[in-house]
Design brief:
There is one protein chain. The protein has 352 residues and is of the alpha/beta class. It has twelve helices and ten strands. The strands form two sheets. Strands 3-2-1-4-5 form a five-stranded mixed sheet, with helices on both faces. Strands 8-7-6-9-10 form a five-stranded mixed sheet, sandwiched between helices. Strand 9, helix 10 and strand 10 form a beta-alpha-beta unit. Helix 2 packs parallel to helix 3. The chain starts with a strand and ends in a 21-residue tail after the last helix. The relative contact order is 0.18.
Amino acid sequence: MNVLGIETSCDETSAAVVGAGRILSNVVSSQIELHRPYGGVVPELASRRHLELIDAVIQTALQEAGVSLDEIDAVAATYGPGLASSLLIGLNTAKGTAVAAGLPFIGINHLEAHLYSPLLESGPKDPPLVDSQLPRDRQALLPMIALIVSGGHTILAHVTGLGQHVILGQTVDDAAGEAFDKVAKLLQLGYPGGPEVDRLAQSGNPRAITFPRSMLDDTGYNFSFSGLKTAVLYYLKKHPVTGNLTPTSNDVCASFQEAVVDVLVGKILRAAEEYRVSTLSLAGGVSMNSRLRARLAAECSRRGLRLLLASPQLCTDNAGMIAALAHHKLCAGMRSPFSLEVAPSAGLGVAA
C-alpha cells in the first residue's frame, strides 16, 4: 500500500509517501523566515503560504518516492490539533485528491502521530511498517511511557499498543516549548527561540540561578511552566541584560533550561517506576533539545531503561509520521468520512 500523507497543522507544509513498508519521502517546506519578523506564527500568513506551496510539495514528495499519483492507494492528512486555517488547507487537499482519484481517506491526529513516531526508528534506519499491527520487534518494546514535548503540548502517556494509550498527565498552562519561546523573547533572542536558548545554555551555568520546579513533587503527572516563565521575567527585571549578549544571558538560559529538564525527566522516570515499564520514548519538537536528550539518556542508562528517540526529521511537524500512522490504521480497516472537519483543539485523549 502506498499512502500519501499531508501535514499543515501550523507553519510547515509537508507531504510524504509511505510504501513498500517504508517512508519513501518526507518533504517539509518551512515558513520560519516568513514569520521571523513577527516573532511567531501569523495564522493568516501561514494558511496563505500553505495554499501557495501544497501542490508543489506533494509533487516533490511523489517524485522523491518514485511513484505517481496513480500509484497512490490512500490519502491521509492531519485534522487536528493546530491552526484552523492551516489545517483546512491540508485536510481539504487530501479529501479532494482522494475523491478525484477514488481513494480511501483517513484523518490523523497530529499528537497521536508524534506519540508513535519514536517507534518508527527504534531499529535499523527506515524499518518496515507492515501489517495492521506494529512489527514484532516494535511490539516487543511496549508497553512504554511516552513524553510528547512541543510548542503547544506537554503530554505524558502510557502506551500499551498501537491505538492503545492513556494520558497520565499534561500541562495545565504553558507547554514546555511555549515557555522556551517566551523566555527567548524576554531575552530578545529572535524566532524560533527554543534552539537559541539551547545553544546559549551550553555555555552557561545551570546552577547559577535557582528557578522553580513547578509540580515536580506532586503525586500526579501534570505539568506547569507558566510560573517558571514568570520567575525568569522577574529575574530579568532585577538583573537586566543590556547591549550584546553576556555570560549572564547564557546562565539564565542554562538555569531556565535545567528547571524544565528536571521536571520533564523527573516525571517520566517516576511514571516508568510506578507503571513498571522498561521503555521510555521522547517525541515532539522540544525533544531535540540537547540537554533533555542527554539527561534522559544518562538516567535511562543508569537505571537500565530503554530510550526511544525519534530522529530530528520526525520530531518537528512532518507528513512522514502522518503517513506512517495512517498506513497502520488503513491496514486495520479504518477510514474517515469525507465529512470529517478540522479540530483545532483536539487532544490526544484516550484511544478507542
